[in-house]
Amino acid sequence: MNLENIIYIMEVIFIIFLLFKFIPKSEVYKAHVAFLSTQVITWLIGLVASEYMLVEYPIRMFSYSNKANFLFEFFLLPCICALFIVNYPEKKSAFSRFMHYFYYCTSLTICEVVEERYTNILKYIHWNWYLSWITLFITFYLARKYCSWFFKKIRIIN
């Protein structure tokens, strides 16, 4: 087993641990909606980035079906976004809310840059770390706005 597969396994185990640790049972429904809405966004962005040769994923699942990283775009990032949305500081100051975005986007971007430099998980072709940070910010923002809208509609109906 190569280093990249070990990293993938460790990431999946770590994300599952975080889900059980930081999503309360009373908020699981919110995490599900966040997970599914994020899959739509990340799958589209991931396919565009890989098909237009902005990013390359040399080692990935389902390598014959498409060029995107299925595990990251369809599982890892949606799980992280579910954590982001469930733990979002809704009633805090604007600075605290921005810092919530900043911490998530920056930590994910740092992990991505380390993987890009030292592993064969991904390679930037016409991409940079700041584009990753911006697309993560947009993804989290769109998913949070969708979840806010979705649960606002639910409250109106009930």
Short summary:
The protein is an all-alpha fold and 158 residues long.
List the helices and strands and how they pair.
Layout (H helix, E strand, L loop, with lengths): L2 H20 L5 H24 L3 E2 L13 H17 L7 H25 L4 E2 L4 H29 L1
Antiparallel strand pairs: 1-2
Overview of this protein structure:
The mean pLDDT is 93. This protein has five helices and two strands, in the order H-H-E-H-H-E-H. The chain is mainly α. The chain has a two-stranded antiparallel ribbon.
**Structural class by SSE content:** mainly alpha
Rounded radius of gyration (Å): 16 Å
Low-confidence stretches: none
For the termini, the CA-CA separation is 51 Å
**Count of DSSP E strands?**
2
Note the beta-strand portion.
Answer: under 5%
Enumerate how many helices there are, as a single number.
5
How many strands, which pairing sense, and closed or not: the largest β-sheet?
2 strands, antiparallel
Oligomer: single chain
Largest sheet: spatial strand order: 1-2
Shape: globular
How helical, in percent, are the residues? Answer: over 70%
Order of helices and strands: HHEHHEH
Mean pLDDT equals: 93
